[in-house]
Amino acid sequence: MSKPIPDDLPLHPAAVGQLHMLKPSDETPLFRAIGQEMSASLEQLLTLADSGYDISAALKDLAQCATEVDTSASEIQQLGAQLDVARDTYTRESKDCTPASVDTWNSYCSGELSTPSLATIMASASASEGQPSGSRKSSALGPEGKLLRMLPLLWADPRAVIPDEDADSDDVVIDGGHIELTCPITCKMYVKPMISKSCQHVFDYDGIREYIGDNGSRSCPQAGCSKTLTMRDFAPDPVMALRCRLATIQEHQASAGTASQQLDVL
């Protein structure tokens, strides 16, 4: 006995427009708000660290949360791509089917006539895409995203070299070597680090401003760099700023620990 209602019917021409209106909701504002809240949490943790608290576990948890949010954003992005593929496939294959009508209804109910299933096509597209890795060229959390994911590594070693996140990797890893936290112009730890968008070299704001002076432009002071720089080429470097702050906190904690040991000896 045939079913009273077919499992699937070919796409009706009048429904094509409605089908193409289907898309995942844009959660960008939500993810950016989450990034700002996480940055506020980081600031609170650093304030606690200034007072001598061990924030290692909390930084690891915060970084894990950032990774999970980015993974969720990747899932939404991937869902949109899968839906585009499934929608185009379903529309194309439906054109080759016999139109549904009173005359063909029973044939579709009995299975004599068949039509592609949007749900099946969507599932196939999802399986072929695989699972989202959570790796993105830019974090869904905004500028704070990558910095948040670096937290445990930078806390372990503020001078660690951390390469750009690879498209095939879900983890930020240490690449070896170390980063100087001293401005090559002022020869002091960065206070307001600025990174060149032209050559990626970092200088302290006061140092590079004085170096360029009234000339408007000047060759990069980094040895071996031939780029000509202006103040417009520079933007704040939040990663270097965080490195310096973490290093300062750890130096203060080490000094406090040494002083405490000396008092214990006395």
TrEMBL record:
Listed PROSITE patterns: ZF_SP_RING
Domain SP-RING-type: 168-255
GO MF annotation: an example: SUMO ligase activity
Pathway listed: Protein modification; protein sumoylation
Keyword Cytoplasm among record annotations: no
Family: Belongs to the NSE2 family.
GO terms for cellular component: nucleus; Smc5-Smc6 complex
Entry keyword annotation includes tRNA processing: no
Name by which UniProt lists this protein: SUMO ligase
Organism: Maudiozyma humilis
InterPro entries hit by this protein: MMS21_N, Nse2(Mms21), Znf_MIZ, Znf_RING/FYVE/PHD
Keywords tagged on the record: Ligase, Metal-binding, Nucleus, Transferase, Ubl conjugation pathway, Zinc, Zinc-finger
BP terms from Gene Ontology: double-strand break repair via homologous recombination; protein sumoylation
Pfam families: MMS21_N, zf-Nse
Compartments where located: Nucleus
Domain of life: Eukaryota
